[in-house]
Design goal:
2 domains; binds nicotinamide-adenine-dinucleotide; two-stranded antiparallel ribbon; Rossmann fold; Dehydroquinate synthase-like, alpha domain; binds glycine; 351 residues; alpha/beta
């Protein structure tokens, strides 16, 4: 197990990463007034774990899935915290994937203006990305993550034991964020390429999780609240990914990140921001995870949903985080018409 410190200005976090990380819960939660948030699927699978580790703590079980990442679920958590008389020095434990983690993190930041938060990510995506760095959110009126806060958890406990119950599709989803991290860090990219045959292998995923967490910790320490622009790099592929996710739904967040990266790698290459060979190596990795890209009907309408992206600054301008040289990124701003034109053209060519 590795211990990774995230030294953010607002509040540092300690991430325990690897086999046996859950044993740290003994000292993390010792003497704490605990309130647990999870979802129905995780509760069904880990009832025994919850009873063993959280004793008689109140448990709020949310409906599972992105479509429940909304104000109804957020207020369900807040109401149950009030019912359970959680105090300001209470500790909210988020046990679940990124959906639970984002909503529970938001509730922890709002309830009595902030209680202690511990993230126990149970999906690969949440372990490599969403549980670290303090972004919390719900979706609202069809816009992803539009209501949220930056609120660092005190501890993050990433234990690979949770991955053993995860369907392959969810591993694929986590691999979306892993490949994204590879596009931002040449050493991680090299490791992914060396292990291209083992991408779904749990032993490999355990190793790469710690690398991704360490990379993300470094970015978040330098730009906790996405002010200097560095943290934006973590949104590579997300402008197009979020737009398609918003419009078409059904697939998981990580799959849309991969599809977004695929489209955006062509834009980067076309505009000479990324060399052909590097764009191709990224597309080869994406292809290994994704296998096939679905056919999207009315893709121009879907692409226009990118106008809601939080990175945009001008009214009709769309911001993209593109791969540049190996391990480097570039931000590009395009008018919506130009961006939609590129997406239509690429969709016509690759699908
Ligand atoms: P999720 O939380 O919906 O989990 C996926 C599915 O797996 C759910 O059905 C869940 O019930 C189930 N599940 C969870 N753990 C399981 C386990 N151990 N075994 C079997 N099933 C399990 O989705 P996700 O992919 O974890 O997270 C996606 C969310 O994360 C999106 O809302 C996205 O916006 C958010 N996100 C946030 C950040 C951030 O920095 N805060 C970063 C990336 C993504
Ligand atoms: N996943 C994007 C971020 O944490 O900033």
């Amino acid at each position: 197990m590795q211990t990774i410190e995230v030294k953010t200005k607002s509040h540092p976090s300690t991430v325990y990463c690897g086999k046996g990380a859950v044993k740290q819960l003994d000292h993390i939660l010792d003497g704490k007034d605990v309130f647990v948030v999870t979802d129905k699927n995780v509760y069904g699978l880990y009832k025994g774990f919850i009873a063993e580790n959280f004793g008689g703590a109140p448990v709020c079980v949310l409906p599972a899935g992105e479509r429940h990442k909304n104000r109804t679920s957020l207020f369900m958590i807040l109401d149950k915290m009030l019912d359970a008389r959680v105090r300001r020095n209470g500790t909210l434990v988020a046990l679940g994937g990124g959906v639970v983690g984002d909503m529970a993190g938001l509730a922890a930041s709002l309830y009595m203006r902030g209680v202690h938060a511990v993230q126990i990510p149970t999906t690969l995506l949440a372990q490599v990305d969403s549980s670290v760095g303090g972004k919390t959110a719900i979706d609202h009126r069809g816009v992803k993550n539009v209501i949220g806060t930056f609120y660092q958890p005190e501890y993050v406990v990433c234990d690979p034991m949770f991955l053993s119950t995860l369907p392959k599709r969810e591993l694929k989803c986590g691999l979306g964020e892993i490949v994204k991290t590879g596009a931002l860090d040449a050493e991680i990219l090299d490791k992914l390429e060396r292990n291209a045959e083992r991408l779904f292998d749990l032993a490999f995923l355990e190793e790469i999780t710690a690398d991704c967490v360490r990379f993300k910790a470094g970015v978040v320490e330098k730009d906790e609240c996405e002010r200097s622009g560095l943290r934006k790099c973590l949104n590579m592929g997300h402008t197009t990914g979020h737009a398609l996710e918003l419009f078409y739904g059904r697939r998981s967040h990580g799959e849309y990140v991969l599809i977004g990266m695929l489209f955006e790698s062509y834009i980067a290459e076309k505009l000479d921001i990324c060399a052909h060979d590097h764009a191709e190596e990224l597309r080869a990795l994406i292809g290994r995870v994704l296998k096939r890209v679905p056919h999207f009907k009315n893709i121009a309408d879907a692409a226009r949903a990118a106008l809601y992206d939080k990175k945009n600054q001008g009214k009709n301008e769309i911001s993209l985080i593109l791969p540049a040289k190996r391990g480097e990124f570039a931000e590009l701003r395009l008018t919506d018409e130009k961006y939609v034109g590129y997406i239509e053209e690429i969709a016509g060519g690759i699908i």
